[in-house]
Design a protein that fits this description.
By secondary structure, the chain is an alpha/beta fold. The chain folds into two domains: 14-242, Rossmann fold (3-Layer(aba) Sandwich); 260-355 and 426-512, P-loop containing nucleotide triphosphate hydrolases (Rossmann fold, 3-Layer(aba) Sandwich), CATH 3.40.50. Helix content is 34%, strand content 25%. The strands form five sheets. It has a six-stranded mixed sheet, sandwiched between helices. Strands 16-19-20-13-21-22 form a six-stranded mixed sheet, sandwiched between helices. α13 packs across α14, α14 (381-394) packs across α15 and α15 (411-425) packs parallel to α16 (441-456). The two termini are 40 Å apart.
């Protein structure tokens, strides 16, 4: 830890004491006490629902604590709104950016922070100097819509620096970055904290924690269950502290095998809305039975459009799609389901479930016409409930039963319901689009185990993921996407994080080699 002149290191920079927060009967935080020092990078770890984000939202003024106090350098302070937090020089970078795409970098940064007549030239020069000071290669005069995802995140950080924040809360900051952009971010975090500032880094990626943090706090069930220095722990120990159960080892060796015949064949698939840049351009690949085929790339480079086109929700402009030698290019979603296509969507709330319906009804949405429970248009609800209960048990879903509303479940349990439904109701081909996004370690392990089991059952699997560790751990081959085009198709053994990161950033295969 860095020592600073004039700072009493016995008094924390910021401290939360005995914080508790309740939502109706749910305990979000209970008696949470933690602190961060100047010059320190504090990592906050925990499963989904562990209370870490709630705790930080209290510090930033988005929530109010029901019990407990907040101190700055030993002095009791009151934070009721984000404006109060900004007054105390606290800033929070949310996982989802809050930028206006049609405005410039400068306009986004001063938005809400400037009064009266604005000297735009001076403002842009000030922001450009700030960007240059921290080594951010960002043009202050460019529009947000013309920036890469990594550059947009730098703009979010610049907003905090412009406000002269000296405590920066970063919520899952690497979720949409390439490996090279992650390295740049880590360099910034170290540089920023070395100037006497503090960073609270919320992430589920243990490697990042061990790479950048000075100290690690582990939360579980709304309470603090560990407070350790990085030098005194390791990834295995942190994982043990995070979860209360033992995770099943992934049986990748047993799942490995020689792929069979081609199940899905995609040829020159193009999606080009009229007078717009193509969303997909000449996409060609095959997926074999018994193979996990990965789609890698930074979010927003055509992965969602590919999934929507394959499942029938989006029409292609040209090209063809064949499933088990049958042309499905122009078939409806229902006919593709009937042919055995499964689809776990990236956004479970928008595309995967209806939150105000029961779990049984959500099962029915996928297959209302299945003869298992449909007789001449009449649904056998008892049979539907029995099937739902069986899936809930098999996929270890924590729910009161098939009649429970989807919105009553945690994000991880909602995802397990969708995975169970799609796996159990599909034939020989299934798409997993970001299946572990926002999940904790236990839920991630559960989903990975299900994917490998389906590979062992000789199903063809397409796995879309921005998590390179997931791609390398599960996939046999991977196609790297950039702006709707495939940069190359490789066996995972032919790539490392450096090479795949360059491909994700738009470099060609020849340039990477």
């Amino acid at each position: 830890m860095v020592s600073f002149q004039g700072n009493d290191m016995s008094t924390p920079f910021f401290e939360l004491r005995n914080i508790s927060k309740y939502f109706a009967k749910v305990i979000a935080n209970k008696d949470v006490s933690l602190s961060v020092e100047r010059g320190e990078v504090l990592a906050l770890l925990g499963e989904n629902g562990a209370g870490k984000s709630t705790c930080m939202k209290i510090l930033y003024g988005l929530y109010q604590a029901d019990e407990g106090q907040i101190y700055k350098e030993g002095e009791l302070i009151t934070i009721k709104t984000p404006r109060d937090a900004i007054h105390h020089r606290i800033s929070m970078i949310q996982q989802h950016f809050s930028l206006v795409s049609a405005h410039t970098v400068t306009e986004n940064i001063i938005l809400g922070n400037a009064k009266g007549r604005i000297d735009w030239k001076k403002a842009q020069q000030d922001i450009q100097r700030l960007a240059d000071r921290y080594g951010f290669n960002v043009d202050a005069g460019k529009k947000i819509q013309d920036l890469t995802v990594g550059e947009q995140q730098k703009v979010e950080i610049l907003k905090s620096l412009y406000l002269d924040a000296n405590l920066l809360i970063m919520d899952e900051p690497t979720a949409v970055l390439t490996p090279q952009e992650i390295d740049t971010l880590m360099e910034f975090v170290r540089e920023y904290s070395s100037r006497g500032n503090a960073v609270i880094f919320i992430t589920h990626k243990l490697k990042e924690v061990m790479h950048v943090a000075n100290r690690i706090i582990v939360m579980r069930s709304g309470r603090v269950h560990g407070n350790v220095l990085k030098e005194e722990t390791n990834e295995r120990e942190l994982s043990r502290m995070m979860i209360e159960h033992t995770m099943q080892e992934l049986d990748t060796a047993q799942a490995a095998g020689k792929p069979g015949k081609v199940s899905l064949s995609v040829r020159s698939l193009t999606v080009a809305p009229r007078r717009e840049v193509p969303l997909l351009k000449n996409v060609t690949f095959d997926i074999h039975k018994g193979e996990i085929f990965g789609i890698a790339g930074v979010s927003g480079n055509g992965q969602l459009e590919l999934c929507m086109t394959l499942c029938g929700a989006m029409k292609s402009t040209s090209g063809s799609v064949h499933l088990d030698d049958q042309d499905i290019t122009h078939l409806s979603i229902r006919k593709r389901i009937a042919l055995g296509m499964g689809y776990v969507p990236s956004d479970r709330h928008r595309y995967g479930m209806v939150m105000d319906m029961s779990l049984s009804e959500n099962m029915l949405l996928k297959a209302s016409y299945f003869s298992t429970w449909n007789r001449n248009g009449v649904v056998n609800r008892k049979k539907l409930a029995e099937t739902t209960s069986s899936i809930l048990k098999h996929y270890d879903v924590k729910a009161s039963g098939p009649g429970a509303l989807a919105r009553e479940l945690s994000g991880g349990n909602q995802q397990k319901v969708i995975v169970g439904r799609e796996v159990e109701f599909c034939g020989d081909f299934i798409i997993f689009d970001q299946p572990t996004r926002g999940l904790d370690l236990g839920a991630i392990n559960n989903v990975h185990t299900a994917i490998l089991k389906e590979k062992k059952n000789n199903k063809a699997i397409m796995l879309v993921s921005t998590e390179l560790s997931e791609i390398f751990a599960l996939c046999d081959r991977v196609a790297v996407f950039y702006k709707g085009e495939i940069q190359g198709i490789f066996r995972t053994s032919e790539l490392d994080s450096q090479k795949i990161g360059l491909l994700m950033a738009g470099y060609t295969h020849q340039e990477v080699i």
